[in-house]
Each structure stands twice: as C-alpha cells, then as structure tokens.
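[Amino acid chain]
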Amino acid sequence: MARKGVRDLWKAKVEGKAVNSNLGAMASLVKKKYVGTILGVDPSLRGSGFAVVEFASGGRQTLLRSETLKQRAKVSMPQCLGNICEKMLHLLDTYEIDVVALEQTIYVQNYQTAQILGAARGAAIAAAAMRGKEVFEYPPLRVKQAVVGNGRASKEQVAKTVRTLLGHGALLELDESDAAAVAMTHAFTG
C-alpha cells in the first residue's frame, strides 16, 4: 500500500475517516465532537475580527457574537493595540469562553507589515493570557481546509461556508467570518 502524505492524512482526519499511518498501524483520527465556547480571532491592526461560537453536544454551532474592530488610520499603533486588548478582555469577561483560537500571521513580503500583524496578535494573546485562557493558533491554509475543504479557498468562499455551517442568515464581514472559521477549525480539528 502506498504511503499517505500529510495532506491525505489531514484530509482523512477532517472527513472523520480512520487512516493507515505511515507505520502501517491503524489509527483512528476521529474524535468526539467539541463541546464548549470558543473565541475566534482574526487579528489585524486596523480591522480585527472577533467571533464567539458555542458548540453544543448535538453538534450544533451557534454564533453568539461577531464584530470587527475597525480603527482609523489616525489612531496610533499603541492605541490600536490597547483597543484590541480591551475588546478581547470585554469578550472574555462577557462570555464563558473555554479557549481562544487565533489565525496565525500569513507570509508577508514586507517586514514592517509582519511586525504590525505580530503586534496585533500579541495584543490578543496577552489579553487571553491575562484571563488564563489557553490559546491555539492555526495557519490560514489549515483554517480553509478545515472549514471549506480547500486550502486555497477565497475569503468569500470561507464566509459563505461559515454562514451555511452556522445557519446564520445575515452576511458577516470578512474579518468576522474568518474569526468564526478559526473557532470552527479548533472545534473540528483542535
């Protein structure tokens, strides 16, 4: 039997199938459905997305809250970071959050952009740490694979799939749907 690559094993896990490991031993990657509330975060200095998603024992997912923290260009970077931290603390204090799931920084060619995105992530992570919440990070490719089934899906495809999975009638802003997708990724695969 041919060896399966990491992508094939990952695809099987997402689909809930038992897989043959490269060592030949049978390994079931199926796990119990996640039950709890996850705060998903798509961090960005000027437009961070937040989504609080509850996962019930029957497999039902409910979007409790979603929003995008938009910050104008005239707001200083330190103030933006403080606002991200403040928003995180507000959500963590308002809802019974079990874990926080963040989207990792994507590869960027501009060093300054990478630093800014890293700072925004740091503000969100610091707030979670202040409330003693465990933080899980997922790369965008994995998020798209887990939610849409295609690691190269567009933001619009992710938004449409999230809306369908949540049974949510209204369109979410792209940053909010990305945040919900990160929460779903943790619930589906974390």
